[in-house]
Design goal:
The protein has 486 residues and is an alpha/beta fold. The protein has 15 helices and 19 strands. The chain binds ligand BES and zinc ion (2 copies). The site of one zinc ion (ZN) has 5 residues, from strand 9. Presumably involved in the processing and regular turnover of intracellular proteins. Catalyzes the removal of unsubstituted N-terminal amino acids from various peptides.
Length: 486
């Protein structure tokens, strides 16, 4: 898809179709040319209205806000993609910041265009829609800098493509997407960018590192585990070292504490944290962010068999903390415990883990929102503020010492499953906190993306399946702190 900007008045641009956003439900905007027809059709700005003779598509937009622009453009693309047209034109709809409006524009298009139809025999023809012409004529009397618009479109495309990259990983089936496949993908990614390097560690390395919590989860899988370390180094002297740790459960059956069938379904998406971390590194390289950015991915399956780790086992983690296993389905925190310990050896300035960690997060926050947990109030608030500009939803979940008591163990240093089912996302976060050293307590944040990582119905510009949760949120955050913006 090519998006071209011109300062020609929209009526002078030749195109196969025109898209008009409808903000005013009374249909009074100057761009609306078919008021009578729209009134006759009783179109009040809900969804889209396609007038084939006039070759115009009207798209409802709730308000001129960045996320509404994304949704409207995704809806426009979906309404036009199957038509026999090769382009459409549209005026620019700017809300406040010009660059951000164009970022949102491109994100809407590229997120809306995502599809995963690899396993459909009856694949839809590739869309002939390949070009969009944006007119900035409306702003010609202001100091409109076309470079801002073009830069916005470029950033938006990178953001969306990074999220789509993660979606492809998450949507892939567990038969194909094994830890070895994740390692292979990380190596291919690293070979595509000059600033990236990748190290892949196998089970022997994990043994040598005493990563026994990680290894325990892997024990009855027929696929060996992989610890994947991707590094992006900018050309300039890096301002900070930021490490993302991703939960990469290529399948979570629950292990011996087996999940009921209904809950097991969609657990190919338990690798969403790792996929997001990998996609963030890709995005960071394309945006040429001035940070050294690492992704540490803990890739394994959680399966069931004669060699499975068991409730009652006690594991000695890499950090030396002993863990009583009370539920083998609380496996993500075991993998993360060892990966977070490994990550701290690399002396990060900021350490963020991403994980589909708890069903409780979904129960508590709904399917649309991720949880932010950690010890540094300012960091959490700042992250929430910047990350939400991406259109993703975040809520801060607070730690407290009463909940911390629930993961005490009688026979080991900590239990992997709380004694109460209430506050499950927070007790999971508190479990991770046990593996964060004193000097990193304020540098660490845990993102529980269990709710929005995988959708069973479409919403906004997200379609069925993986949403790429965490990717754009973290890239927006990184982008903002690049500028030192508060
Ligand atoms: N991968 C799941 C969490 C999950 C559930 C993610 C639903 C996305 C959708 C995780 O490993 C898990 O099973 N957690 C348990 C923890 C419990 C046993 C303490 C849970 O949330 O039930
Ligand atoms: Zn689990
Ligand atoms: Zn899991």
């Amino acid at each position: 898809m090519r998006i071209e900007i011109s300062n020609k008045p929209i009526q002078e641009i030749l195109a196969d179709f025109e898209v008009i956003l409808v903000v005013d439900k009374n249909l009074n905007h100057k761009f609306i040319k078919d008021k009578e027809t729209l009134e006759f059709l009783n179109f009040k700005g809900d969804g889209t209205c396609l007038l084939s003779k006039e070759k115009r598509l009207y798209v409802g937009i709730k308000a001129l806000k960045f996320d509404e622009i994304r949704i409207a453009l995704a809806n426009a693309y979906k309404a036009l993609k199957d038509l026999k047209i090769s382009n459409f034109k549209i005026a620019s709809y700017i809300c406040g910041c010009k660059t951000k409006s164009f970022i949102a524009f491109a994100e809407g298009i590229f997120l809306g265009a995502y599809k995963f139809d690899k396993y459909k025999s009856d694949k839809k023809e590739e869309s002939s829609l390949k070009e969009i012409f944006i007119s900035t004529d409306e702003y010609s009397d202001t100091e409109f800098d076309i470079n801002h618009a073009e830069n916005g479109l470029r950033i938006g495309e990178i953001m969306a493509n990074s999220a789509n990259f993660a979606k492809n990983i998450i949507n892939e089936i567990p038969e194909i997407y094994t830890p070895e496949k994740m390692a292979e993908d990380a190596e291919v990614l690293a070979s595509d960018y000059a600033g990236l390097t990748c190290k892949v560690y196998d089970e022997n390395f994990l043994v040598s590192q005493n990563m026994n919590a990680f290894l325990a989860v892997n024990r009855s899988s027929s696929h060996p585990p992989r610890l994947i370390h991707l590094i992006y180094k900018p050309e300039v002297e890096p301002k900070k070292r930021i490490i993302f740790v991703g939960k990469g459960l290529t399948y979570d059956s629950g292990g011996l504490s087996l999940k009921p069938s209904d809950y097991m379904l969609t657990m190919k998406s338990d690798k969403s944290g790792a996929a997001a971390a990998m996609a963030i590194v890709k995005g960071a390289a394309e945006l040429e962010l001035p940070f050294e950015i690492h992704a540490i991915l803990g890739a394994t399956e959680n399966m069931i068999g004669g060699n499975s780790y068991k409730p009652d086992d006690i594991l000695i983690s890499r950090s030396g903390v002993t863990i009583e296993v009370r539920n083998t389905d609380a496996e993500g925190r075991l993998v993360l415990a060892d990966c977070l310990d490994f990550a701290q050896d690399l002396e990060p300035d900021i350490l963020i883990d991403l994980a589909t960690l708890t069903g409780a997060c979904m129960v508590g926050l709904g399917e649309y929102t991720s949880g932010i947990l950690g010890n540094n109030e300012e960091l959490k608030k700042e992250f929430k503020k910047y990350a939400e500009e991406s259109g993703e939803f975040y809520t801060i979940l607070e730690f407290n010492d009463y909940l911390r008591d629930l993961i005490k163990s009688n026979i080991a240093d900590i239990s992997n499953s709380a004694s109460s089912r209430y506050g499950g996302s927070i007790t999971a976060g508190l479990f991770l906190d046990k593996f964060i050293r004193k000097e990193y307590k304020d540098k660490w944040m845990h993102l529980d993306i269990a709710g929005p990582a995988y959708l069973e119905k479409d919403w906004g510009y997200n379609s069925f399946g993986a949403s790429g949760a965490g990717v754009r949120a973290c890239l927006y955050y990184l982008f903002k702190i690049t500028k030192g913006e508060k």
